[in-house]
Every structure is written in structure tokens, then in C-alpha cells.
């Protein structure tokens, strides 16, 4: 289970294009602690830490521990789309509205 957690955690970090340092900032978990879950010895985090990690990555704890994917995500999304989605989750409401308006303008232009 511990190596499966390590593997799934690494897979999700790669999928989202996140570094351990960025995950640390998102979760408030020390980088060194996260490194312990990804290192050679790959320890299993306590439940409260696993929940923080799963929430930050947008997956379930069950997925991190077992590898069984509970959420259905579109694997066909390319890296740029996933990056845009990740950035959007970190913006305030006003900035999101601005980007939505810009997106609508770009869509109309591409339809011409």
C-alpha cells in the first residue's frame, strides 16, 4: 500500500504538472514531509494528511491508497487545458469573470 500511495501521488503530481514544493504550498504540509511519502522508504501519511493531499490534487484518498480511480476525469485533455484549469482554480471571482468574458469573445471570433 505504501508504495502504491507513493506511485499514485507521483502520478498525480506529474499529471497536474505540480512540484512537491507547490503541493506543499497548497496543503500547508512541509516539503520534507511530502518528500517522505515519495522517497525510497515511502511512508504512508496519517489520514488527515492524506485528505489534505487528495483535496489539493482533486482525487480521493481511496485513489491515492488503492489506485482505484473514483473520479471520472477526461484523460484526453492535453497538458495546456489541464494547466488552464489549474490556474483558474487559484483565481479570484473577478479574474474568472474577466477570463470568461475573454473566452466568449475568442469563441465568437473563431466562429466567423
Describe the structure.
This protein has 112 residues and is an all-alpha fold. It is 69% helix and 0% strand. The protein has 7 helices and no strands. It has helices spanning 2-16, 20-27, 31-38, 47-57, 61-66, 79-88, 93-111. It is elongated, with a radius of gyration of 17 Å. The relative contact order is 0.13.
What's a quick, concise take on this entry?
By secondary structure, this protein is mainly alpha-helical. The protein has helices at 2-16, 20-27, 31-38, 47-57, 61-66, 79-88, 93-111.
Give helix and strand order, one letter per element, not per position: HHHHHHH
Can you summarize the main beta sheet?
none
Distance between the terminal alpha carbons, to the nearest Å? Answer: 54 Å
DSSP strand tally? 0
How would you state the average pLDDT, rounded? Answer: 86
The amount of helix comes to 55-70%
The 3D shape can be described as elongated
Q: Structural class per helix/strand content?
A: mainly alpha
Unreliable spans are none
Compute the number of helices. 7
SSE layout and pairings?
Elements: H1 2-16, H2 20-27, H3 31-38, H4 47-57, H5 61-66, H6 79-88, H7 93-111
Using brief descriptors, characterize the structure shown:
112 residues, mainly alpha, 7 helices, 0% strand, elongated
Amino acid at each position: 500500500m505504501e508504495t502504491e500511495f507513493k506511485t499514485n501521488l507521483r502520478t498525480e503530481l506529474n499529471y497536474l504538472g505540480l512540484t512537491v514544493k507547490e503541493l506543499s504550498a497548497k496543503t500547508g504540509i512541509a516539503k520534507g514531509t511530502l518528500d517522505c511519502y515519495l522517497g525510497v522508504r515511502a511512508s504512508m501519511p496519517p489520514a488527515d494528511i492524506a485528505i489534505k493531499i487528495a483535496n489539493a490534487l482533486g482525487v480521493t484518498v481511496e485513489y491515492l491508497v488503492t489506485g482505484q480511480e473514483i473520479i471520472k476525469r477526461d484523460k484526453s485533455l492535453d497538458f495546456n487545458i489541464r494547466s488552464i484549469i489549474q490556474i483558474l482554480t487559484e483565481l479570484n471571482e473577478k479574474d474568472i469573470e474577466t477570463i470568461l468574458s475573454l473566452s466568449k469573445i475568442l469563441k465568437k471570433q473563431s466562429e466567423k
